[in-house]
């Protein structure tokens, strides 16, 4: 039997379109009526799900006022990516679409919430600062419970930030800095403590590396993190290998989590199998522990109810779904989350930058000349093959890696928008676009290298020593 591919669960594209339009109206009326936040969120969630279904069936984004056309069905996303789902977990990121992972779909699959304009506006209002470009441009695009954090903050209830890095090598690339650059901004605008976990234990368990190498990478990576400008009076950076053994409170929380998560659950969440070593199986408890304030008595004076906010790339969400699931069962608040998209590889947004492939990444140690060569040689272009064609038809910024990188690093919104328009219309050539990216990256990386040079071993030691921070809890 053949199935009509414009039908999903019995609904035709037109029915889907009408359902979507009705749901959009519903969301708007709930918002105008200042309805309960939970109801609005639920309605938005359904709206997003319908949009994903719609795109699946029609291959096009839903546009209010533009009903589906009969011809659209042939170029649907199913055929574009072979009908497969994007892969997103802590170890792999892959999609067949040159535009990158379908993030709206991921929000539905993971059950998180979209960072919409309303939330960005609210962050601006509560912090009193212009939202960071990562928020303005949807690079941090998804969240869990951010409204709750802001509600409490408005009532003078503080919170703290937790983020981390797996130190798998000496070499860090620009993609690794995204969560730290954003976390630094959050720390500045909200003036709150920050803990940074370096999971040298995790990398030892997963990679073919010695314990001592992982520990050394942790200290080396700490220098790059410190070079982002964190305030030593407000920031604690720790290696699991060092801190776990020295903090009874931290270890107690690890054990509490271990008692409340079964092998079956972690198998379901992380895909572990019977032949994975037991270190891997219990590791998620170690990534969960820093989300509870009682793991840091020196900072929070034993308080176990300080709300945690975790900025991270969305591939880390499985760890924190588990963490949020156990939190109430062990008497702690659930951590809130802010999720970022991935930083695309030079070769294209089908995957993220990888430190193990030198040509896929711009490293923090690259010279201006290396940056220039890599961008010119390897950055996937959405431009046309010849100048004549390009002038006539224009380029495609949605799949162009140089343009994508500029959306991460160019501060000026108007300048970026002009570049997008000029590239799309063909006024701007690929070579010219790449030159702009090179001229943005070179001073940025040079400045980072300068900052890193000024980070002494003594400073690293200070950041990594358990101690009170400049906050009264
Ligand atoms: N598992 C992460 C990695 O491999 C490191 C990490 C630990 C982390 N805790 C975190 C990342 C909290 C983000 C937020 O890179």
TrEMBL record:
Please indicate if the UniProt record lists Aminoacyl-tRNA synthetase as a keyword.
Answer: yes
- The ranges of region (Disordered) come to 65-89
Q: Which UniProt keywords apply?
A: Aminoacyl-tRNA synthetase, ATP-binding, Ligase, Nucleotide-binding, Phosphoprotein, Protein biosynthesis
Its Gene Ontology cellular component terms are:
cytoplasm
Q: Which residues form the WHEP-TRS domain?
A: 12-68
Among PROSITE patterns, the record links this protein to: AA_TRNA_LIGASE_I, WHEP_TRS_1, WHEP_TRS_2
Q: Decide whether keyword Protein biosynthesis is in the record.
A: yes
Which GO molecular function annotations are given, in alphabetical order?
ATP binding; tryptophan-tRNA ligase activity
Which CDD domains does the protein's record reference? TrpRS_core, WEPRS_RNA
Q: What is its EC number?
A: 6.1.1.2
Family under the similarity heading: Belongs to the class-I aminoacyl-tRNA synthetase family.
This chain belongs to the protein called Tryptophan--tRNA ligase, cytoplasmic
Its organism's taxonomic lineage begins at:
Eukaryota, Metazoa, Chordata, Craniata, Vertebrata
What gene is behind this protein?
A: WARS1
């Amino acid at each position: 039997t053949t199935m009509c591919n414009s039908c999903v669960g019995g609904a035709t594209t037109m029915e889907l379109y009408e359902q979507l339009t009705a749901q959009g109206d519903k969301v708007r009326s709930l918002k105008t009526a200042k309805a309960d936040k939970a109801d609005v969120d639920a309605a938005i969630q359904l709206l997003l799900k319908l949009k994903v279904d719609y795109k699946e069936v029609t291959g096009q984004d839903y546009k209010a006022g533009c009903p589906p056309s009969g011809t659209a069905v042939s170029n649907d996303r199913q055929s574009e990516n072979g009908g497969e789902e994007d892969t997103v977990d802590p170890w792999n990121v892959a999609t067949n679409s040159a535009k990158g992972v379908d993030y709206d779909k991921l929000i539905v699959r993971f059950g998180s919430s979209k960072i919409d304009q309303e939330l960005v506006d609210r962050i601006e209002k509560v912090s009193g600062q212009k939202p960071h470009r990562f928020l303005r441009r949807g690079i941090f695009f998804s969240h869990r419970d951010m409204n709750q954090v802001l509600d409490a903050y408005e009532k003078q209830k503080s919170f703290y930030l937790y983020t981390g890095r797996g130190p798998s090598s000496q070499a860090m690339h620009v993609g690794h800095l995204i969560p730290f650059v954003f976390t630094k901004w959050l720390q500045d605008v909200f003036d709150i403590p920050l803990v940074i976990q370096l999971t040298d234990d995790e990398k030892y368990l997963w990679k073919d590396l010695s314990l001592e190498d992982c520990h050394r990478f942790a200290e080396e990576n700490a220098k790059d993190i410190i070079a982002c400008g964190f305030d030593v009076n407000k920031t604690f950076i720790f290696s699991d290998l060092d801190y776990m053994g020295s903090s009874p409170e931290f270890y107690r929380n690890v054990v509490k989590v271990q008692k409340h998560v079964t092998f079956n659950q972690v198998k379901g969440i992380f895909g572990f199998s019977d032949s994975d070593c037991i270190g891997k199986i219990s590791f998620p408890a170690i990534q969960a522990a820093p989300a509870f304030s009682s793991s840091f008595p020196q900072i929070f004076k034993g308080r176990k109810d300080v709300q945690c906010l975790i900025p991270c790339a969305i591939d880390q969400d499985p760890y924190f779904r588990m963490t949020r699931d156990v939190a109430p069962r062990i008497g702690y608040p659930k951590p809130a989350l802010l999720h970022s998209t991935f930083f695309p590889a030079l070769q294209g947004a089908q995957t993220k930058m990888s430190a193990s492939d030198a040509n896929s990444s711009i490293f923090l140690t690259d010279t201006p000349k290396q940056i220039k060569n890599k961008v010119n040689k390897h950055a996937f272009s959405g431009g046309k093959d010849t100048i004549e064609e390009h002038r006539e038809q224009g380029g495609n910024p949605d799949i162009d890696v140089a343009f994508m990188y500029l959306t991460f690093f160019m501060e000026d919104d108007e300048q970026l928008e002009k570049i997008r328009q000029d590239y799309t219309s063909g006024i701007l050539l690929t070579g010219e676009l790449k030159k702009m990216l090179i001229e943005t990256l070179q001073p940025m990386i040079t400045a980072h290298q300068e900052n890193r040079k000024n980070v002494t071993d003594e400073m690293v030691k200070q950041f990594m020593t358990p101690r009170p921070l400049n906050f009264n809890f």
